[in-house]
Structures are given as C-alpha cells and as structure tokens.
Amino acid sequence: MESVGLPYSQVAAFDFSPMAARRSPAHIRRQDPEHHFLVLVREGAVRLEQKRGVACLGPGGMALFSTSHPLTCDFLDKGGPLRLTLLRLPRAVLPLPDGRADRMLAEPLPDSSGSGTLLGPYPPDRFLLLSAVAQRVRR
Fold it and tell me: What pLDDT does 115 receive?
C-alpha cells in the first residue's frame, strides 16, 4: 500500500490477493471514524454491498462506501491481481446535502454521473492523477 496525504483526505493504492471483508454493526459501534471512501478499481473485480446498493465493479469502475454502515466487500478471483485506489473523504467535508451520499452507497458511479459533485475540490481527473501519483510513489 502507498498513500498520498491531502487536506482532510488521503489517497491510497493497494495491490492484493482475492479476499472478503465485512464491517458489521458491532465494528461500527466499537469505532466509526465517519469516513466515506471512493474506490477506483484499476485491475480485477470487486463486489460492494452496503445499505440497499450493490456495485459489481471491474477495471475503471468507481463506487462510494461508508464506515458508518455495515459493508460486505468481495475482492473476486479473476485469475490476476487486484489493484484499487481509495480516496478517503471525512463525512464532514463532503460537499453534498444530508442523506445524498448515503443514497449513493455501493452504487456504480459511471464516468458521466457527475461524480465531480461528490468529489468537490477533487474532480475525477485529479482523482485519477492522484491514483497515478500513488502508483509512482510505490515504484
């Protein structure tokens, strides 16, 4: 994992093997940092389930998830590596009205969805640029 710190947020690039991750109500009760994460799949496949949303993402796919709700995340074995970039955004700095981000959880964000609104000062091209920077830091 490599990461780049930004004001109020962080971008991190991960490479790893297939696995599953869960965040239960008990995990949330123990500690909830109240963050949202925008995930960009660079290689491989990921299935996110949170609230009523389910996102099945391949390379180039993006979705939002939150630390404040139970989460099921499967990093699928497609015969190759899994590579992701995560942008951590504290809930308090998201430029969205109350409840809007929660309605977007685990929903695929197509390139034309206006995800720039979600990112506020971090438009998609900058997110991709930060992803590339995080990749180069690792080398």
Answer: 47
pLDDT level of residue 122 (50, 70, 90 thresholds): very low
Amino acid making up residue 66: S
Structure tokens at 103: 């309605």
Q: What is the pLDDT of residues 25-72, one digit of tens each?
A: 999 999 999 999 989 898 999 999 999 999 999 998 889 999 999 999
The amino acid sitting at 139 is R
How far the first Cα of the chain sits from its last, in Å, is: 11
Report the run of H or E that residue 52 belongs to, with start and end: none
CA distance 53 to 118: 17
CA-based torsion, 49, 50, 51, 54: positive or negative: negative
**35-43 vs 62-66, strand pairing mode:** antiparallel
From the list 32, 29, 136, 51, the residue with the least C-alpha distance to 85 is: 136
